[in-house]
Automatic annotation (TrEMBL):
This is Monooxygenase. One of its GO terms (molecular function) is FAD binding. PANTHER family: MONOOXYGENASE (PTHR13789), PUTATIVE (AFU_ORTHOLOGUE AFUA_6G14510)-RELATED (PTHR13789:SF309). Keywords: Monooxygenase, Oxidoreductase. Residues 5-90, 255-320 form the FAD-binding domain. It holds the Pfam family FAD_binding_3. It comes from Actinoplanes awajinensis subsp. mycoplanecinus.
Length: 362
């Protein structure tokens, strides 16, 4: 008789875990509190480690077909001067895969298509611990599973707010870029069908909103920034702008208690500075399935998962937090020193420093 798993949360990590567990013969149910399995979001970056995880799920080529390889990218100063540049060809030579940008909706759709309809139950709010051989908490930053089993773990505001949006079709961009200003950032990268995924950050108090809307706030903050930022904002529908205060989790002492395990943002929510949120959730999912496949004893397999995933993901959280702090510097001498340091650091050194993250393998 197949062992049973209940996965609470139908986002990227939860659905990927369901695919992975079904591939090793588990009977899986995914519970999602929203009335439907949909994703309200913008774009996301899939780095080589995330694509490697998708390959282990048998979904890499489907996702690649929906995404766009970012040919070149880098970091610019507030004046538009390049501080550092890299290419997807360099990333692929070193790590075996390029950097691919996809719409969250497309990734969710592919994951859903890999699961039979009977596995998915929407509109279910979990208030009591489910009964199963395994319970997976994949219900995000404000996880109810974590709150019930890991009391006292409170997400902390990272000190800045993020805006995300997808433009209407625009002329092709030569490069993607993140532009650093004092206390603000604006990034953009091409997506399919001529659209562009844009993201921005600003040092804003938690919970503060703009009286005349978030699109107007973006135009005030970034409307005079270097090209092509003004044109990208002009090509953005105001109603498409998503605003989220950025939170991260303090380090948990364990991702496991009994037969309950956490993954994704429920375990290690991080700032988006490294573009690793989805990638780490995908790594979690395939690692969990691999541990359970290797070891028939669930508690022992979960202990192995915790030994592997917790140190790695918490290191990524710390690194993303540091980069977010650097990116949000506002004091002019600190901004000047940051930009000079970025300009003087060879691209090869920057790429080599990413090896512990992007070079991940099972």
């Amino acid at each position: 008789m197949a062992r049973t798993a209940v996965i609470v949360g139908g986002g990227i990590g939860g659905l990927a875990a369901a695919v992975g567990l079904r591939r090793i013969g588990w009977d899986v149910t995914v519970l999602e509190r929203a009335p439907a399995f949909t994703e309200v979001g913008a774009g996301l970056s899939l780095w080589p480690n995330g694509l490697r995880a998708l390959e282990l799920l048998g979904l890499r080529e489907q996702v690649m077909a929906q995404g766009v390889v970012e040919a070149r990218g880098g970091v610019r100063s507030r004046t538009g001067r390049w501080l550092s540049r890299s290419s997807s060809a360099q990333i692929e030579r070193r790590f075996g895969s390029p950097l691919v940008v996809v719409h969250r909706v497309d990734l969710i759709r592919i994951l859903l298509a890999a699961l039979p309809a009977g596995v998915l139950r929407a509109g279910v709010a979990v208030t009591e611990p489910p009964e199963a051989d395994l319970v997976v908490g994949a219900d995000g930053l404000n996880s109810t599973i974590r709150a019930g089993r890991w009391p006292g773990i409170i997400p902390r505001y990272a000190g800045h707010t993020a805006w995300r949006m997808i433009t209407n079709p625009v002329p092709p961009l030569a490069d993607g870029a993140v532009t650093w200003g004092p206390g603000e950032r604006f990034g953009f990268t091409a997506m399919a069908a001529g659209r562009v995924y844009c993201f921005a950050t600003g040092t804003v108090g938690a919970g503060r909103t703009s009286a005349d809307g978030e699109y107007a706030e973006l135009r005030r903050r970034f409307g005079r920034w270097p090209d092509p930022i003004p044109a990208l904002l002009a090509a953005t529908s105001p109603e498409s702008v998503l605003r989220h205060d950025v939170y991260e989790l303090p380090p948990l002492p364990s991702f496991v208690t009994g037969r309950t395990v956490l993954l994704g943002d429920a375990a290690h929510a991080m700032t988006p500075s490294l573009g690793q949120g989805a990638c780490q959730a995908l790594e979690d999912a395939v690692t969990l399935a691999a541990c359970l496949d290797r070891d028939g004893d669930v508690p022992s397999a979960l202990a192995a998962y915790d030994r592997v995933r917790r140190p790695r993901t918490q290191a990524v959280v710390r690194r993303a937090s540091r980069l977010g702090t650097i990116g949000q510097l506002a004091w002019p001498p600190a901004v000047f020193a940051r930009d000079v340091a970025a300009r003087l650091t060879p691209a090869a050194v920057t790429l080599r420093s990413m090896a512990p993250i992007l070079g991940w393998r099972m």
